[in-house]
Amino acid sequence: MTNLTVNLPGLNLKNPIMPASGCFGFGKEYAQLYDLSQLGAIMIKATTAETRLGNPTPRVAETSSGMLNAIGLQNPGLEKVMASELPWLEQYDTSIIANVAGSQTEDYVEVARAISSAPNVHALELNISCPNVKQGGITFGTDPNIARALTRAVKDVSSVPVYVKLSPNVTDIVQLAKAVEEGGADGITMINTLLGMRLDEKTGRPVIANITGGLSGPAIKPVALRMVYEVRKHTDLPIIGMGGITDVTDVIDFLSAGANAVAVGTANFVNPFVCPEIIAALPEKLHDLGYESVEELVGRSHRL
Amino acid sequence: MTNLTVNLPGLNLKNPIMPASGCFGFGKEYAQLYDLSQLGAIMIKATTAETRLGNPTPRVAETSSGMLNAIGLQNPGLEKVMASELPWLEQYDTSIIANVAGSQTEDYVEVARAISSAPNVHALELNISCPNVKQGGITFGTDPNIARALTRAVKDVSSVPVYVKLSPNVTDIVQLAKAVEEGGADGITMINTLLGMRLDEKTGRPVIANITGGLSGPAIKPVALRMVYEVRKHTDLPIIGMGGITDVTDVIDFLSAGANAVAVGTANFVNPFVCPEIIAALPEKLHDLGYESVEELVGRSHRL
Amino acid sequence: MIRQEKMVVVSQQQIARNIFELIVKGDLVQDMQEPGQFVHIRVADSFEPLLRRPISIAEINREESQFTMIYRSEGRGTSLLAEKAVGATIDVLGPLGHGFDVDAAKAKAYLIGGGIGVPPLYQLAKELNAKGVETVHILGFESKEAVFYEEKFKALGETHIATVDGSHGTQGFVTHILNELPKDFDTYYSCGPTAMLEAVQWAYPEKQGFLSYEQRMGCGIGACFACVCRTTKSETDYIKVCSDGPVFPAGVVIV
Amino acid sequence: MIRQEKMVVVSQQQIARNIFELIVKGDLVQDMQEPGQFVHIRVADSFEPLLRRPISIAEINREESQFTMIYRSEGRGTSLLAEKAVGATIDVLGPLGHGFDVDAAKAKAYLIGGGIGVPPLYQLAKELNAKGVETVHILGFESKEAVFYEEKFKALGETHIATVDGSHGTQGFVTHILNELPKDFDTYYSCGPTAMLEAVQWAYPEKQGFLSYEQRMGCGIGACFACVCRTTKSETDYIKVCSDGPVFPAGVVIV
Ligand SMILES: Cc1cc2nc3c(=O)[nH]c(=O)nc-3n(C[C@H](O)[C@H](O)[C@H](O)COP(=O)(O)OP(=O)(O)OC[C@H]3O[C@@H](n4cnc5c(N)ncnc54)[C@H](O)[C@@H]3O)c2cc1C
Ligand SMILES: Cc1cc2nc3c(=O)[nH]c(=O)nc-3n(C[C@H](O)[C@H](O)[C@H](O)COP(=O)(O)OP(=O)(O)OC[C@H]3O[C@@H](n4cnc5c(N)ncnc54)[C@H](O)[C@@H]3O)c2cc1C
Ligand SMILES: Cc1cc2nc3c(=O)[nH]c(=O)nc-3n(C[C@H](O)[C@H](O)[C@H](O)COP(=O)(O)O)c2cc1C
Ligand SMILES: Cc1cc2nc3c(=O)[nH]c(=O)nc-3n(C[C@H](O)[C@H](O)[C@H](O)COP(=O)(O)O)c2cc1C
Ligand code: FES
Ligand code: FES
Fold first, then answer.
1. Would the annotation count C227 as a binding residue?
2. Contact state of B301 with A204 under an 8 Å Cβ cutoff
3. Of B10, B28, B77, residue with least CA distance to B48
4. I need a surface site. Which of B50, B284, B291, D215 has the fewest CB within 10 A?
5. Is the CB of C54 under 6 A from ligand 1?
6. Residues of D in contact with B245 (CB under 8 A)
7. Residue A248's closest chain B neighbor by CA?
């Protein structure tokens, strides 16, 4: 029997596959389609201290093998997430990773403290990399000093392990990874979206109301994979890799490059069953490649 | 009659379309297919002081709507380019932009001084952004101070206007653009490739011998367009835009975002006639959009 | 229940300029609840184009397990859809969203559609007529060449056509026709460009109405927050076109 | 002259496991010079998959303006190619590169091919035979199911087959057969995996030989420097497989 389990700080995953934050809401919609207990974990939509309405529409645009989004962290706010979304998720036997966002350190700290105390939140994902909010967000993710300090502040109040989500929109991703490691991060999740733009061909106007948006989907996979590979060379922290994953082969690539687990974002929109399908395909794929467990395969590209 | 001409420092272009450096060699191969005098200009392959053998093969890999390359600046070296490639190009009525590369300032200066004196070289394109060479190259393109100093050094010796080619692999492209502007750049060309990677699905080995390569093609267009738009907001320098252009609509997008002219790279490999086809389609497209000249359309997204 | 199914193309026909009628067959039809729901279509096996395309359900044939879509072939996705021949399979996710409240109309209803907003009104008209509600159809198109289903609507009730260029029916917009028609109906239903929905809403402030909205979509099932609209119901909330809509009672959506 | 042409599919047939024979028609055929040249094929109208696929010319029929390709449907590009039906058009760039020197052989030639390296040897065999050169064909495949064109080669001369699993012909590699054969030929021609080309070259250091190489390609016409190999001719230069090759005299390419 192929062993799919992955053990990471706070997360004893039955398999390394989870939906990425923002692409799966709080699970309710996909629960109409399949049993969420199949999933290794669920990264829920970014939660902020207050209700956020997000950006005006249009919020998405299609690009070659990818899409842009500028949702702007719309979410019902900490209180409602704690009161209704998280309790609802308790019926499923899977780990919940809460994506925490804000526009200043205090916001992050407030959300982290509260949400990490929810009984079914197993880890936090610190979203210092959202390109679609005017204040904070991405600046936290591009300055190593700020990223380090924010990680430490959140780490100090969190009752569960803290994973920090890195932005690809930086000159040196390794430097950021090192910074959050110094700040006490228990793990890294990467990558968030690349900043991009699309124009309406008739008018020349940006298609996305926010002007720019975050690029995701297969188009960004080569960049994501390169970054995971580079960061793995420089840290032993667990990495949850993502960016353009659409099938089991993509998963193998990220694990090979050094990710310990992976998240699937945009592909859920194209094929809502993509996560369970990948989970089902994984044992045979590992077996064909000559591996008996996920953990054996992790990082193989570095051992050649 | 729609006016396609574009006048930029050193470059009086009959139209704004030119092949991008490294995707067109020194023109000989495409000259078998069509008359190069149709082109607005030609950006020739990077030239270094000495002959460069470049990287081992495989040097290219396909990705979703894109490709990776790690040619490693293979070129016959300054002497041969001056002695045979450039003189051969004199038969064509088009502007030549010489792409200058090196691994230290002295190399750049040497090549720039010599090649800018060739009778048919109208401008230099300073390649401070090649991701595929171990030394120099990209570090020049990611540190604003180094970029500024290099630009100044080259500017001092060049007999023709100097355009600096920016790397997208940076946190803040505007900062780099400002730096080269301060260094005396006459214009900016952007973007070079995004650093990426692909793994062999069976072995987990990087497909490209150099491990990482530069991502180009339609996949990167949203990133390129966003960067051109941002840089245009902060400088009046001429911009030659590129990244994923495959047809006349893409050209309109880059011009709208603020590019004064555009270059076509990877698309030449897919459709070797792409440049003349775009040039032929441009007048009608401009007309349909209600413009009588290229220069009228440039930057329209900023005027909405 | 929402299903993802490879449905089989039974018929594909061009019925007006750039307008295609596509009939597909599969089990998913049995779950269709209301006229005005839509499906989300994956047009290619590859990830290019990436996103699914939302298309309304235009007619439901439960006995044959078939349903009809009418769409404009315009961009990359719909052009690929137009290439699907009889026998080909299409990846359909649906039925999605909430449609028109058929029970709301009492005696007489106005069905007001514009362009590719017309299709869902056809199944609606059929169901209303089946319930004994008289339907009047006011349909707007660009020009004569773009008109479709005129005879089919006529077979169900009084039908007025407006074309922007006047090449068929009344010249102008549906509102030009509405101005001339009596207000002797109890309920209106509308689907079309947002500007048209706004105009219709303004025209009948006192009537009960239902409007079907469009937004750019990601997931199509309510998970990604791409397709939201502001709502009069709450200052601190949005409604999602894909899962709360696409049909909302008049007065609910702020555009 | 190199042309880009929308060529029409005349025939598409599976002839072995995952192996397809594709015949297309168009003017470009008239420019084909030598066996061993190749074409560069765009398999989709979209940019996904992005790059063209290099495929050898397996047989040329100038009268009918047709040529044959034989390819293994494996990855994304070749799978799409296998879907092209009779009547469809395919975007072909070619003819490209330099092929086998047919005039080099005097009386007897060995044609040594492995897997999808076998196809270009077929046109070569035909041309050599037409010139009165006796050809012996030594062809290696994975297994019985992968073997193709055996009868066609037999019709042109002595033909030996090796399969890795021994399910047909000699068990092992082409070199196992070569070891048993006399060295009474004047020229050899070979196309196949690089390891095979190396082995063949080692086996006949004293003979005149021509080898066809593979490399990952970008442009296919010599402009991008993707497909280079080091050469014994110069320490400071590369040769390009696409435009200087794919066929080189033995001893020229360093692998
Ligand atoms: C609930 C709903 C029902 C619809 N019903 C129909 C119908 O029955 N018939 C019909 O012809 N059209 C209908 N549309 C509009 C249809 O979805 C778009 O015309 C179609 O998605 C455009 O795709 P494309 O490939 O032609 O264009 P592209 O330009 O390639 O599309 C690019 C992206 O923009 C999105 N997009 C473009 N236009 C629209 C639009 N108007 N609304 C939403 N997304 C858009 C596409 O889905 C895609 O993600 C409906 C839209 C919605 C939201
Ligand atoms: C000069 C030349 C002649 C060839 N002739 C034939 C032939 O007659 N019949 C045949 O079946 N094959 C031939 N090949 C190999 C053929 O080009 C590859 O099998 C094919 O490109 C793989 O594409 P894919 O879509 O199946 O694979 P994918 O894995 O989707 O290909 C991904 C990328 O890698 C490239 N690639 C993968 N394998 C190879 C390879 N072996 N050589 C070069 N590029 C590769 C592809 O072109 C593409 O750019 C030839 C190759 C060369 C260089
Ligand atoms: C519509 C959408 C919304 C997203 N929202 C969030 C978010 O709230 N928090 C976050 O950390 N990442 C968010 N992301 C980024 C994804 O989690 C993921 O990092 C990125 O999309 C790359 O993965 P993919 O290519 O598989 O989509 C969002 C992405 C999309 C497409
Ligand atoms: C095969 C290849 C070789 C390249 N060589 C060079 C080069 O020598 N100098 C340079 O400045 N850019 C080089 N580039 C980058 C292109 O000029 C261009 O900036 C980039 O590919 C983005 O444009 P595209 O998406 O249209 O290809 C190369 C790109 C490719 C694909
Ligand atoms: S499209 Fe995703 S929430 Fe509506
Ligand atoms: S493939 Fe471009 S030089 Fe050979």
1. yes
2. yes
3. B77
4. B284
5. yes
6. none
7. B201
What is the chain B residue with the closest CA to C48? B65
- Tell me if B116 CB under 6 Å of ligand 4: no
Asked if B109 contacts B84 with a C-beta cutoff of 8 angstroms, the reply is no
Number of residues in chain C = 255
Q: Which two tokens stand for residue D223?
A: 């402009």
pLDDT reported for residue A304: 83
C63-99 residue pLDDT tens: 999 999 999 999 999 999 999 999 999 999 999 999 9
- pTM value is 0.97
The verdict on the CB of residue B121 being under 6 Å from ligand 4 is no
Token pair belonging to D182: 């006399």
The CATH classification number of B6-53+73-196+221-297 equals 3.20.20.70
Q: What is the pLDDT of residue A119?
A: 95
Beta strands in B66-132 (DSSP E): 66-69, 95-100, 121-127
- Residues paired with residue B124 on neighbouring β-strands, in sequence order: B98, B162
**Distance from the alpha carbon of residue B188 to the mean position of ligand 4, in angstroms:** 15
Q: pLDDT tens, B224-234?
A: 999 999 999 99
Number of other residues whose CB lies within 10 A of the CB of residue C131: 11
Does the interface ipTM go beyond 0.95? yes
What does the block give as tokens for A266?
Answer: 């945009």
pLDDT of residue D237: 80
Residue C220 has a CB neighbour count (10 Å cut-off) of 29
> Chain D closest CA to A244's CA: distance in Å?
15
Return averaged pLDDT per consecutive 10 residues of chain A, 304 residues in all: 95 98 97 98 95 93 98 92 96 97 92 96 92 65 93 97 97 96 98 97 96 97 98 98 98 98 98 98 97 97 93
B260 vs D: CB within 8 A: no
Mean pLDDT of B68-73: 94
Task: Tell me the mean pLDDT in the region B24-39.
Answer: 97
What pLDDT score was predicted for residue B120? 96
Residue C228: pLDDT above 60?
yes
With residue B28 as reference, give the H or E element that holds it: helix B28-31
Domain boundaries defined on chain A = 6-53+73-196+221-297
pLDDT reading at B278 higher than 80: yes
Domains in chain C (CATH in brackets) are 3-96 (2.40.30.10), 102-204 (3.40.50.80), 215-255 (2.10.240.10)
Residue B140: the pLDDT is 83
End-to-end CA distance of chain A: 25
- pLDDT of C237 higher than 90: no
Q: E strands, B9-161, where?
A: 11-13, 17-19, 41-47, 60-63, 66-69, 95-100, 121-127
Is it the case that residue D57 has pLDDT exceeding 80?
Answer: yes
Ligand 3 site, residue C224, Cβ cutoff 6 A: yes
The rounded distance, in Å, linking the Cα atoms of D126 and D114 is 18
Check CB contact of A169 with chain B, cutoff 8 Å.
yes
Contact A42, A297 (CB under 8 A): no
- Tell whether B170 is within 8 A of chain A (Cβ): yes
CB A224 within 8 A of CB A173: no
- Amino acid identity, residue A221? K
Which chain B residue shows the shortest CA-CA distance from C46?
Answer: B64
Q: Supply the pLDDT for residue B141.
A: 87
Residues near A110 by Cβ (< 8 Å), separated by ≥ 6? A49, A78, A102
For residue A168, which of B194, B61, B128, B224 has the smallest C-alpha distance?
Answer: B194
